[in-house]
Amino acid sequence: MLSEDEKEFVNVKIVDVQTNLTPTEILLHIEIQNNFREPIWIVNDDWFVWKKEGEKIHISLAREKMRPGVEVFGYFNPNRKKVGPQETFYRKLKLIFPLRLNMIWNKEDKVRLSPGKYQLKATVGYGFEEKFDDIKSENIEQDILNWQKKSTSEYVTITVT
User: Please, are residues 43 and 148 in contact by the beta-carbon 8 Å criterion?
Assistant: First the structure.
């Protein structure tokens, strides 16, 4: 678990939001800044976890726990991107609605947003070791979750038309 001071060492910020009218599309530009004195490895998978409560949306690009009851044929390690000390990694995330989601981590396979304003934040996962060679547990998912730290952006406003 990171201390309050350490949480400041990986800054996640949604630096730009672009919306188009047809189809409903939102493009997020996410900045991930490594302020540690050592490299980190950002989880860089192609999918994410979607959580929505009212007008609040949380997108997690971190590796999350699989949904209860989901069975997979072999658990795979997350893709990772090395970010050196004092370096910044930029990630673009395109949301096209209806938005298709991965059912291993999400309750729904598709979500839609009604027109309106929403508050959105993003979480990224990272670790200090590149490889998972030491993982020999029967619960690989838990080993990866133990390896991973998380950092979350502030909310930004998005508008769906």
Answer: yes
For residue 141, pLDDT over 70 is answered with yes
Q: For residue 145, which amino acid is it?
A: L
Which of these, 73, 133, 64, lies nearest to 102 by C-alpha position? 64
The radius of gyration computed from the CA coordinates of the chain, to the nearest angstrom, equals 16
CA–CA dist 148, 155 (Å, integer): 22
Q: Is the CATH number 2.60.40 carried by domain 6-160?
A: yes
Lowest mean pLDDT among 26-35, 47-56, 88-97, 138-147: 138-147
Question: Which residues on neighbouring strands pair with residue 30, listed in sequence order?
Answer: 14, 91
Per DSSP, the three-state class of 144 is helix
The structural domains of the chain, with segments of one domain joined by +, span 6-160
Distance CA 143, CA 18 (A): 36
Q: Report residue 120 as tokens.
A: 């959105």
Closest CA to 91 of 58, 124, 49, 63: 124
Q: Helix-strand-coil percent breakdown of the chain, rounded to 5?
A: 5, 45, 45
Q: What pLDDT shows up at residue 73?
A: 67
Specify the residue for token string 């690989």: 140
> What does pLDDT average to over the chain?
88
